[in-house]
Structures are given as structure tokens and as C-alpha cells.
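Page 37, continued from 36.
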């Protein structure tokens, strides 16, 4: 015998742009979780849900994507969503229309057919202890969601907003985690099958993943006196996934890592500013790429199991460890291997500089094969 919902929590409507948007119907399940009966999907399979507030507490939230009654292995009976008589959604878009930020502290589970889950809030999102269950993609963004004429999600345009992963982290281990915001602070662990982290002002095509930067530039103070970072990973933060792509789109805003970024397969890190690494960046895949418009400063460890390619529009300074099966480092400016830094290319080491290459007294260039260095000036000490 199914226990049907006896009452609903009527959530307030919000007036935005002269249109009244009512929050989807929701109620508290006997388990303590909040159940949201998502809106009817359109012809493109998108259920577009508008909220005054979207927050997830410790008891979690269930997005009800089933037109049938469900006997859940964990939560027991969940009554059918009567909005879904014509079928379930493939994408569940949750969009905040007020000026309130979102706090996600518990699980978000899709009941019924698996779907992509999008949470869009231009005022900011903090995820600390949030997890995603029965989702293909978990997309958190402070950007505007642009719909196509047929009702599909066409692109995301980010012009502001901060996305923070708190100390309790984010778990999307069985799916794809996508983080899109002007500034992204990672103070806890992000676990995902695959992860995309893109920061700055930009538009990202939803189908191809191609990104068009808006060309936002840092001021001199933001680059020097008080450095600003598009992506900032603290010592307690990090990302672990099969493949990881990190992009800092704003000009002059760097990427800073003090934590642990580990890809079991491919790794690509691109910054329109500099990279400051004091933590661990590691990939076990065939190709690991780090490219910056400005400099690369490494006081930690950057490692690629096979090919590690570093490309800098300015300098490379290493006082930590750079290593790969093949280590290929290219800089328009100087390359400095300082202090007790090591650059290791087990099968080959190639350094190309538009300025000087300097290997200081306690530093090491190591390879079991060939070491090639090309520069205007070579300074071994």
C-alpha cells in the first residue's frame, strides 16, 4: 500500500519581470527529505523549475521525476508526480529568480528516470556536503541559462557570481560535475566521474562545450598588490575525477592550487592569467596539459604519467617537482629551475625558452634519455 501525499507545502510566488513564477509543489517526506514534484517537461525533455529560494538541508532533496508510484529502497514509498503524465524529464533545470544565494548541504536525488540536474543562481551557490544521486550531469552555475527555440538548453552565459565548494565537499562520483561561475573557490573535495570547472565571464555552448570568453581584464592591483584568482583551491580542497578540465577565462586572473587535483585519465588546465601551484596536480592519463597566458609558478608537484606539456605566455619558475614520462616545457619568457627544484622527463626532457634557461646549483634536470634545451641564454650553475 502506497502512502500518498496528504498535504503540500505551498511555496510563495515571486514577481520577476512582470511575470509571476510559482515554486514547484513540494512536501516533506516521512524520511525528512524534501520532495519536489518537478514541472512538466517540454518537447525537448527539459523540466524548467523556477524558485524564490533553492536550498538543500541535511535531510536532502528528492526531485520527483516519476509518473508512477515508486517503492524506494532507502526512502520507502514515493507517490507519483502527476505533472509527468506525458513522460519524465531528461533535464531538470532549477533556476532561482530572487536575489538570494543557494546553500546545498545534503543530497539531491532524482527519483525515477535518471536526468541531468542544473542549479542556476546568479546570486551565488555554496555546496558543502552536497551529493548527486541518479544524475548524468550535475551542473552548478551562477550564469544565465539560454534556451533554444525548441526548448533545449543552448548555452550558459556567466557575467558574475561566486561558486564555493565548502569543507564538506561535493560528491558526483557517478556522473559529470560541471561548475560554471565568475569566481570558483574550492575548499573541500570534489569527487566526480568527470569534472569541468570554468571560471570568469564567458559563454559556454551546452552541446559542444566550446567557450567564448567575454575578455574581462584584471586591474593592475588585482594582478599585483591583491592578486585575484578565477579558480582558487585551498589546502583542504581538491578535485578527483577520471578526466578534469579547468579553465580560467578572465584576462590576468590566475588559478591557484594549494590542494590536490588528481585525474585518473586526462587533465587539461588553462588560465588566461597565471598558475600558482603549491599543492599537487597529477594525471595518470596519456596527455596532461597546463597552459597559461602569463606565468607558471610551481612550488608543489605537477606530474603526468606519460606526456606532461607546460606552455606559458611568460615565465616558468619551478622550485618544486615537475615530472612526466616526457616533460615538454615551453615559455615565451625565462625558465628557471630554482632552489632544490627538479624537472624530470623519464623518457625525455625538452625545455624551450624565448629568454633564458637557468638551472640553479641545488636544482636538477633529470632524464634517462635525452635532455634538450633551447634558449637565448643557458645558465647552468
Amino acid at each position: 500500500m502506497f502512502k500518498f501525499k496528504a498535504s503540500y507545502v505551498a511555496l510563495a510566488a515571486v514577481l520577476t519581470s512582470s511575470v509571476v513564477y510559482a515554486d514547484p509543489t513540494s512536501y516533506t517526506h516521512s524520511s525528512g527529505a524534501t520532495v519536489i514534484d518537478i514541472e512538466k517537461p517540454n518537447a525537448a525533455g527539459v523540466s524548467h523549475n523556477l524558485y524564490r529560494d533553492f536550498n538543500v538541508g541535511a535531510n536532502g532533496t528528492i526531485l520527483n521525476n516519476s509518473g508512477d508510484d515508486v517503492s524506494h529502497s532507502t526512502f520507502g514509498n514515493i507517490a507519483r508526480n502527476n505533472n509527468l503524465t506525458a513522460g519524465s524529464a531528461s533535464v531538470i533545470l532549477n533556476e532561482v529568480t530572487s536575489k538570494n544565494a543557494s546553500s546545498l548541504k545534503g543530497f539531491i536525488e532524482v527519483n525515477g528516470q535518471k536526468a541531468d540536474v542544473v542549479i542556476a543562481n546568479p546570486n551565488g551557490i555554496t555546496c558543502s556536503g552536497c551529493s548527486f544521486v541518479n544524475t548524468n550531469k550535475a551542473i552548478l552555475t551562477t550564469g544565465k541559462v539560454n534556451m533554444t527555440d525548441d526548448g533545449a538548453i543552448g548555452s550558459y552565459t556567466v557575467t558574475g557570481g561566486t561558486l564555493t565548494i565548502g569543507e564538506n565537499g561535493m560528491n558526483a562520483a557517478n556522473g559529470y560535475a560541471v561548475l560554471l561561475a565568475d569566481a570558483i573557490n574550492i575548499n573541500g573535495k570534489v569527487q566526480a566521474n568527470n569534472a569541468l570547472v570554468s571560471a570568469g565571464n564567458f559563454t559556454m555552448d551546452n552541446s559542444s562545450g566550446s567557450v567564448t570568453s567575454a575578455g574581462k581584464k584584471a586591474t593592475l592591483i588585482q594582478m599585483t598588490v591583491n592578486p585575484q584568482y578565477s579558480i582558487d583551491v585551498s589546502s583542504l580542497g581538491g578535485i578527483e575525477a577520471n578526466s578534469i578540465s579547468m579553465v580560467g577565462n578572465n584576462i590576468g586572473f590566475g588559478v591557484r592550487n594549494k590542494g590536490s587535483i588528481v585525474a585518473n585519465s586526462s587533465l587539461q588546465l588553462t588560465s588566461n592569467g597565471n598558475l600558482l601551484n603549491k599543492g599537487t596536480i597529477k594525471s595518470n592519463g596519456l596527455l596532461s596539459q597546463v597552459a597559461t597566458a602569463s606565468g607558471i609558478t610551481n612550488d608543489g608537484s605537477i606530474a603526468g604519467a606519460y606526456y606532461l606539456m607546460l606552455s606559458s605566455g611568460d615565465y616558468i619558475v619551478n622550485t618544486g617537482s615537475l615530472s612526466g614520462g616526457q616533460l615538454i616545457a615551453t615559455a615565451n619568457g625565462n625558465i628557471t629551475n630554482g632552489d632544490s627544484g627538479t624537472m624530470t622527463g623519464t623518457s625525455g626532457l625538452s625545455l624551450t625558452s624565448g629568454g633564458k634557461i637557468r638551472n640553479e646549483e641545488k636544482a636538477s634536470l633529470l632524464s634517462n634519455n635525452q635532455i634538450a634545451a633551447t634558449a637565448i641564454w643557458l645558465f647552468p650553475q
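The mean pLDDT is 92. Flag for discussion at group meeting. Residues 162 and 333 are 33 Å apart (CA to CA).
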